[in-house]
Here is the input.
Amino acid sequence: MTTTEAGPDLVGETLADVGRRVRRAMLDAIPDSEPHRWLYGMVRAYPSRPSKALRPALCLAACRAFGGTDEDAFPVAVAIEMFHNAFLIHDDIADGSSHRRGRPTLPADHGDALSLNAGDALVVLAYRVLRRSTGAMSPELADIVLGEFEAMALRTLEGQATELGWQRDTVTALTPEDYLHLIMHKTCWYTTIHPLRVGAIVGSGGDADVRDMVRFGFHLGAAFQIRDDLLNLTGDASLYGKEINGDLYEGKRTLALIHLIDQVSPEHRGFLEQYLSMERHDRTPEVVARLRSLLDSHGSLEFAADYAQGIASAALDAFGAAFAAASPGRDADFVRALIPYMLGRPS
Amino acid sequence: MTTTEAGPDLVGETLADVGRRVRRAMLDAIPDSEPHRWLYGMVRAYPSRPSKALRPALCLAACRAFGGTDEDAFPVAVAIEMFHNAFLIHDDIADGSSHRRGRPTLPADHGDALSLNAGDALVVLAYRVLRRSTGAMSPELADIVLGEFEAMALRTLEGQATELGWQRDTVTALTPEDYLHLIMHKTCWYTTIHPLRVGAIVGSGGDADVRDMVRFGFHLGAAFQIRDDLLNLTGDASLYGKEINGDLYEGKRTLALIHLIDQVSPEHRGFLEQYLSMERHDRTPEVVARLRSLLDSHGSLEFAADYAQGIASAALDAFGAAFAAASPGRDADFVRALIPYMLGRPS
Here is the structure.
């Protein structure tokens, strides 16, 4: 199974269309009132910036492919994207990041305290959108959807805790399997598995068996995350929107870094261990450049890229089972075309 | 109207009983699983520490006084206390606080990033308790309760944003009315107004007219907050549980500080303005001690204490209207006895 001919255009057009509609709906759901400078203006910042809209697009496509209409899942898709934006704010505080979607992060512009509070407000507003949308469902379906949302949020926070814990406690005895376990929680559940599951649940009125979405969503999300890690090292900053090498400054345990920790030649081991135990603000451009050259010379980026190829093949296999009961057509084609898109996307 | 004879015991016993039961329920609602050190152990920390349990006690008393049983409102009361604990974690990050309930704060022990994430998890878990409890109500009542919860959360975050904004932007042209407007949002809504309103709504099955709860809860909550501000300056650290003078280090715009800004004698004005524009970490024990002596010499603490007395009188007036339709008895007595309790509490 390879990319359909309609692949790239279908993906690009669908994401652009969903992105426009979801951004408008998010801004409609966020008050534009006082306190504006210290709260709602900040809450509106990230939802105003163009983004990929991958999560709501997956949710809407799964809903339609499993028998629903766009309207059935649209507010749920909006709530997912709002939760994602809230998580980005808190992530940018935790990571000390300088740029997001091509502009300064909220904490860079407004400090940590006001940004933390703005992220909290976006969580509450996401829940409000979700409540209003589930209020129109049967109580049973509403309960399933809300339970899925909570499980997704907790898994994401568990993954974030593990990643932060690895960095804080200088955990280095990690394998590629540890990395996959991490991103299953930190990335895949809320980026792919949850949007697919909840879309199919809403579309089918609760009838769809969504268990196979976990395996497919895991591989699709893992391909997304490994590509994201590589873009952080090699991307075009103007397209990528975040600072290049930001993960290295943070000491993030990416697949490439885990490969290097395992493979590093003896003369560089001392430097690597010292690097990993540094605080972020002690990592100068010079030591980051040295780490980067070690990743290059040990083939760690190629290792990660090859790993992503294998993951993408597994995603293609898993797609068949996950969408076996779905209607064929544009929506299923879009989801399948996302697999090669994940590996080639420039941003 | 003065304290009933049963007042102090009734308040103390009720708060102790509710506190025990709510702490147990909160810990039952928080996973005790992995990642434990980096997430759930942290999430369980504040809910494990003894606290006043004022908010759930108000919610339960209002529920019973308006015709409900303890069981009707108990999960809602637990969700309110969980939200409160989540807010305390994020507050301790924003304020850089060192102590909470007599022990180190989560950010002091584990850093800001993991603490932020733990607070987020507690918000999601509070919503889960709320969802499970509203699932047993009629859809109409559930929608009202959830809408009240969201409105409370947003008001709290609006108040927090305003307070942080005043500090960050060195806003000094403030009156006692600005302070009351701030604490109406930051404190009263989630400490008193919301627990009273949602308790009465659940107890009456949605029939109670809870509009008069706003005025009563505002005055009760304002008395609570002004007392809290004074305890921060004059309390016994072992009872109060937070660092004494912490508000001065933060430059928090309390009623006493607003009084001083208005009344400060010309020879001290330059120092005060310089103090207010400092960053927290530049405020040494020496400059904090000088500010504290200015508050003493200008009678700013007496001003705040007198103000709280007037607020408490207004609360007694407003109690009658708010509880006009309630059954007389132990629950209404408890709520009324909280008014003098607010002014005299040692912690």
User: Anything to note?
Assistant: The first strand of chain A starts at residue 99 and ends at 100. The interface with chain B takes residues 31, 34-35, 37-39, 90, 93-95, 111-114, 116-118, 120-121, 123-125, 127-128, 131, 135, 139, 143, 146-147, 150, 153-154, 157-158, 160-162, 164-165, 168 of chain A (CB under 8 Å).
